[in-house]
Amino acid sequence: MFEVENLQVSYGQSQVIHDISFKADKNETLAIMGRNGMGKTTLFKSLMGILPSQASKVRVADTEVAALESHKRVASGIAYVPQGRMIFPTLTVQENIETGLQVSKMKSIPDEIFALFPVLHDMRHRKGGNLSGGQQQQLAIARALVTNPKVLLLDEPTEGIQPSIIKDIAKVLNEIRKMREITIIVSEQVLSFTMEIADRIIVIEKGKFIHEDRRENVDAAMIKKFLTV
Ligand SMILES: Nc1ncnc2c1ncn2[C@@H]1O[C@H](COP(=O)(O)OP(=O)(O)OP(=O)(O)O)[C@@H](O)[C@H]1O
């Protein structure tokens, strides 16, 4: 269970996240949707402790992480797949994944990871920078997963990825949830993708949550209106 209360984030004098509170359960996927510039990346970076923020609560299971630095938040069970993937281009696929192992103290990459992402096994000796966008996205997810997270945050995972691969990513996120029963929180602009993975969809506008639906009650036309400029 992941719980956030009264989160505020500012860049200097300019407040970008305004008093956001939400909860997400174990084995739940939550999608936070909004146009460019609405605060999705800022929200995720603050939850990871990469950006300074104020909150009365940021709780992962029974651990309060609001006062912790980023690496301690990771050790407490939050993992992050940043926008643009940010894999290490000069390291091999295997080395990229291994950078996550220090956190979980595992000695080698578990078979489960390569079962989820067979293409990464085939390409394990290639440099990360030589992979396609979709493969790099899979690599970034694999690297996050080996930290053994309770909460997995993914910032716009479909950005710049072709439609057939977007479907693969949706499939893999559903498999991960089934296997690990973790909380997955994804920021997105693509409704067809979030409708395949999310239990709940929240709309963010100018740093505030302005709308929320369970997937089965989603009014697609309304959400699309929020997403178009
Ligand atoms: N380093 C920064 N300094 C000042 N303002 C910033 C900074 N980074 C982002 N902002 C502003 O904060 C607001 C939210 O930006 P953010 O990147 O979080 O939005 P986003 O929803 O993730 O959009 P995108 O999809 O374009 O990444 C925007 O108005 C943006 O201009």
Automatic annotation (TrEMBL):
GO biological process terms on file: L-amino acid transport
Record keyword Mitochondrion present: no
Keywords recorded for this protein, A-Z: Amino-acid transport, ATP-binding, Nucleotide-binding, Transport
Assigned protein family: Belongs to the ABC transporter superfamily.
Protein name: Urea ABC transporter, ATPase protein UrtE
A UniProt-annotated Pfam family: ABC_tran
Superkingdom to which the source organism belongs: Bacteria
Domain ABC transporter stretches: 2-229
Organism phylogeny: Bacteria, Pseudomonadati, Pseudomonadota, Gammaproteobacteria, Thiotrichales
GO terms, molecular function: ATP binding; ATP hydrolysis activity; branched-chain amino acid transmembrane transporter activity
Keyword NADP: no
PROSITE patterns per record: ABC_TRANSPORTER_2 (PS50893)
